[in-house]
Amino acid sequence: MFRRMISPNWKTLAVCCGAWAACASMAQPVQMTPQAAPARQQAAELLAPGQQALTAWRWRLQAVRGKDRAWFTRAAAALSEPVVLRFDEAAVSVAAPCNQLRGRYLLSGERMLIEPLMGTKKGCADARLMALEDRLEQILPTVKDWRLQTARQQSGQPAATLRLRFINGSEWLLQGEPAGAPGSL
Hints:
Elements: H1 2-25, H2 36-45, H3 49-55, E1 57-65, H4 69-76, E2 84-87, E3 91-95, E4 100-108, E5 111-114, E6 118-119, H5 127-139, E7 143-152, E8 158-166, E9 171-178
Antiparallel strand pairs: 1-2, 1-9, 2-3, 3-4, 4-5, 4-6, 7-8, 8-9
Helix pairs in contact: 4-5
Keywords: Signal
Signal peptide: 1-27
Organism: Ottowia cancrivicina
């Protein structure tokens, strides 16, 4: 009797699994086409105004104040290009001297949370650059808040400055460059 009660359910499960497998095998890969641009625009419109402003720029690390100033000053002498941060809808990417770092972030008003970063692990020829990358990977997840200021330059071009403050009291100043500019991440 117990066997008869289970058998119909087992057959139903087998039929459902077979139907699901057949549907899954017919799925076509999604391709990015020019028609996808409106979808990206719609996604951008769903972002909070502060997040829209944050994602509209790529950010060059210009100065570090507070406890982190010493390590940044030592490493900055070895930099051939500035450290660049780029925020998209859900993640921050860091173009460091030798590697790329990436991690998810969340905003709540002026509060920012960056989850631990992951990235490539190529070695740097200069130990100062490797130390800089290690420090970037350690300190970015300790950000506590952010402030973005925008203005117009005398030329009429937009300008933006991003200030990140960390739990150890340090502050980073980053200069914005429009995200669509040549050389953007």
